[in-house]
Predict the 3D structure of the following.
Amino acid sequence: MREENCIFCRIANGEIPSKTLYEDEKFRVILDLGPATNGHALILPKEHYADLFELPKETAGEVMQLAQRMAGLMKDRLGCEGLNLVQNNGELAGQTVFHFHMHIIPRYPADGQKIGWKPREVSQEELEDIKNKITG
Ligand code: AMP
Ligand code: ZN
């Protein structure tokens, strides 16, 4: 299914031009228009899935294989020394376009970016409680 008003549906299916790095029948990989670093790319499925929760299991596996392939290209061609994969789900988590996408962010010395979180203190009891909530 494709959604009429979804910008990434339109880009992925070629209705809106993009700087395409890779394309096959299921995916398009494009350069991000607001890049964190040189080569910041997005993997877009051509079908519309809002987020990870909607993504079929098989497609999820294919996304990771494609990310690995693109990562290799970034290393060989751009000479990046590190790389972040980022994938936001839900507004609270920073998602702004509600069509599943995986960010591929090549990293370079002194690129001025910081992708991360602020670690909190946690007790063993809290960890045990959370573990039981998830797995119990
Ligand atoms: P997220 O915050 O994870 O939803 O990421 C959305 C990303 O899409 C941002 O990094 C934007 O810079 C990027 N973006 C939004 N519109 C476009 C577009 N038309 N072409 C390429 N990238 C886009
Ligand atoms: Zn879409």
User: Anything to note?
Assistant: The chain is about 30% helix and 20% strand. The radius of gyration is 17 Å. The mean pLDDT is 97.
